Structures are given as structure tokens and as C-alpha cells.
Here is the input.
Amino acid sequence: MEKRTFGQALAGAGAAVLSSPIAVMAAEQAASGGASKPWWFWPLVLLVFCFILGVVAVLAGVGGGVLYVPLVSGFFPFHIDFVRGAGLMVALAGALAAGPGLLRRNLASLRLALPVALVASTCSIAGAMLGLYLSRLDPDIVQVCLGATIVGIAALLTFSKNSELPVVDKQDAIGLALGMRGAFKDQSSGNIVEWKTHRTLMGLIMFIFIGVLAGMFGLGAGWANVPVLNLVMGAPLKISVATSKFLLSITDTSAAWIYLNKGCVIPLMAIPSIIGLMLGSLVGVKLLAKTKPKVIRIIVICVLLFAGLKAIDKGLGIGLLG
Amino acid sequence: MTAQNEKDITAPRKEQITYANVLSIGAWTGIAIMTVTYILYVTGIIPPHVDVNLIVDNWDKGVSQYRHITDSPQGWNWVLLLGKGDFLNFVGMVLLALMTILCYLIILKGYLVRKNFAYAVICILEVTVLALAASGIFGSGGH
Here is the structure.
């Protein structure tokens, strides 16, 4: 009973935070140019906003970057170039911090990650350059593409049915040659789970697109990594989630360099975002056992849908969503 | 299955542990440096290159325009401004962005020693890709 009340309260808080009052206050200030506020107003608001975003992201089982870019570009006064730069640094810092623990527990697999990371990180450079080129031509193009991608992600999170332990009867030649297999102890059942991959070539081709999207929008790409590793390549869900998180530390590194070198990372706004999201993630992990992640996930999907539609609305200059 | 067998097949490979250990030290060091330098920056202990009010007035503009107005560098030219509070922040961020290259170089040695040439080639290619991205060849040209 107490747990349910707490879960409901947190879900309500998540909804309140993402739709108001900080986001609304930020949006109002952004609309009025925010000139009346002292310089420290925005970093402080961003720190608090990202802290709550970090909590909600963990509870909803999504990466911070995928929430950060659409919401901050929608509600804060920063140009999309700087939001994408900061978004990549946020996703990178989170992945670097989580990676070691996942590797030590053998949940993230280096053998699975290294080949796909090479494809994704190479393509994320192309994506970052394409995104910056389109932004130079017309930032609204990027807004519309970002909005469409976010709506697509919301749909993917709604309809994608991951498989806990996919059946892989025969490993393909590439997977076999690269030794893409392993074993881990499932803590919930106590069983040893041995796994191997299949359809490696198809998975690698899909990582071309994932890399481009990750670099183009600075989103991180856990939302796409997990279904490809799990449903296409046949890795168990736990291995897919952990390897995906670790993978971001490689994919986002290459795109982050492009944004860093171009001057798209402003420390005044990027560092409060990174620290806020990391602290929020730590709190989120502690709250995970006491909440109902499914409710929060539904709320986050709704927020993503709204943020995506808002980005499309902004890019097309319709003005329906404010 | 004996407990020893169980431990053997579920244990991460040696290179995976090495990677994790190096990454852990580097990531948390980077985050700590970033936090300290940010405090030095926003408290004004180390004066910035670009006034904070000028940043706030212009962060709604595209990156080319912003760089022009604030006289901000691109590529690795921030190194020349390390004595300034705002660009000192890049030390922590760049350390984070360099960690993957460092980790790959360390495990590359292990793959070469064990003659695992497939993964050695993957490591060499990845380091090349990341080094090219870091070099500024792709990111800092033009406007």
C-alpha cells in the first residue's frame, strides 16, 4: 500500500516535472528572452531539471540523452547546436560511469560491443557532420527531423516487445569467427545463461543507421541499440541492455569530438546538465526498487511524444504547441 | 556444474577487466575535474575568456555566429586558453572523450600478445576513427 502510494506520487511528480513547473517556467523565460534573469538562473534551473530527468530516465529505463535533447531544446533558450553537443556529453559521461561495473559483472560484453561499436562510431561522425551541415542550412530542418525521430522512438518504446532469452539455434559465420558468445549468472533465477548471436551482418548494417542518428541528434542510442542486439542479433535482454549502455561510451565519443571541435559544447550549460543527470541517475537507481517503472515508462513515452510533436511544430513554424 | 566451473564460464575475460579498471579511474577522474573546474569558473576564482552574460545573450544563436561574437576557439585552440576559467572546464570533458582511445590502446596490446588478430584489427581501426574525430579534421573546418 505504502509502496503503491509512493510509486503513484513519484509517477505524478515525474509527470509534473516533465510537463510543468520547471519546464513551463523555463519555456516562459525562454519565450521572453530570459533577459531579466541573472546569468546563473539558467545553469541552476538546468541542474535541477536534469537531476529530475536523471531520476525519471532510470525509472523509465531510457537513456538520459534521449530525454535531454528534445526537452531542453523545446523548453530552454539554447540553440539546437549546443543542446546536441551537451546531449552527447551527457550520454557519454553516463555511459563511461556505468560501463566499468557492467563489464566487471560480465553483463556488458566486450566481444559483442567492439565490432558493432566500430560501425556505429564511424557512422556517428558522418551523422554529426550531417547534423551540423543541416543546422547551418536551416536549423528548422534539424528540428523537424529530430521531432520525427523522437515520435518514432516513442512508438518503438510502445510497441517493441523485447525477448528475455531469444532462441539462437545456430550461430552465423561472422558471430562465430568473432567469438560473439558468453555466459552470465542470472541473479533472479540463479541459473547460468549461455548465449551466442546470429544475424550479425544484419545487425551491423542496422548499426550504420543507429550511428548516423546518434551523431546527428546527439541523442545517445540505447533506444535503438537494445532492440537490434536483442531482437535481431539474439543476445539476451540483460546482455543487450548492459552492452548497449557500454556501447554508448564508444559511439558517443566519436560524435562528441566533432561537436567539441566545432565549439558546440558550452561548459556553462553542459556541465550542470552532466552533473544533474548523473546525480539524478544515482537517486533513480535507489528509488527503482520502490516504484512502479511501468507507470513512469508510460508517462515518459507520452512526454517523448509531446516533445517530438513540439519539435516538429517548432520546425514547421505552425505554433500549435506553443 | 561445480562452483569452480560456474565461476570459470561466467567470469569476464582478462581484457574486459583491464578495460573496466582503466575506464573506471579515467571516467571518475574526468567527472571530478569537471566539477572542480566548473566551481572555479562560476565562482569567478579563475576569470573566464568569455563573459558569462555574453554567453547567456548569445547561446540561442547558431554555433558559427556564437563563436564569432564571443571570439571562442574551435578545434584544439582551447588549449591556448587553459588559463581562463571557461576553457579550463575542457580538461575534464576532453579526458572523458579520450578515455575510450586509451582503453582501446591498452587492450590492443593484450590482443596482439595473444595473437587475436581479428580483435586487434578492430581495435586499430577504432583508435584510428576516434583519433581522426579527435584531431579536428572533421569538426573544425569551415563555418
